[in-house]
What we know:
By secondary structure, the chain is of the alpha+beta class. The protein contains 4 helices and 10 strands; from the N terminus they run E-E-E-H-E-E-E-E-E-H-E-E-H-H.
Amino acid sequence: MSGGRESRCFRGREPKGGGKGLVWTALTSENKDNIMTRSLSRRITIDSVTFAREGGLLQGELPVASLSRVLDTLTDAAGDLAYRVRGRMGPRDRPRLVVEVDGVLSVCCQRCLEGIDHPVRIRSLLELIGDEEELTREEIEDDSMDFLTAQKELDVVALIEDEIILDLPVAPRHENCALPDAGERLREISPFAALKGKVK
Length: 200
């Protein structure tokens, strides 16, 4: 960035009428202390490589109700998740994205079908690679990061939702609970129910 000119990582618009939307910025010396945060309520795309090379930063809130691929696993879609997506360069001059998500999701217990508060604390390091780029064995076995194919139009909401899906428990259950109305059903099918009142 020459001449101190601010660099935009991607383009978009705020919604009209003062509605909520995502504010984007490049993290520069001029604006690093003035990052705005808003609710991410619309589809926003970035050039992933440019975003990383220019040290881009997105942060704000993501409405739980907007997580279309997650809603079926939840008992409550109220509230928001705090998100932060940062771009940076890693070793070997490879662009990287750091995705952070915090909050609580009410996932559905697979036994009693009631809600379980699942704390979300995602810290993902994603290294961007080309379509046909080959990884070394050491890179494949490195559990500290994952790899993502670089995209000219990377959907930020979809990226965050992917990380949330990977974080969700496969079969959430309370430590102690029963099937819905299990006690009532057991009384109905018990062979001793018919004898109730006859035995003296």
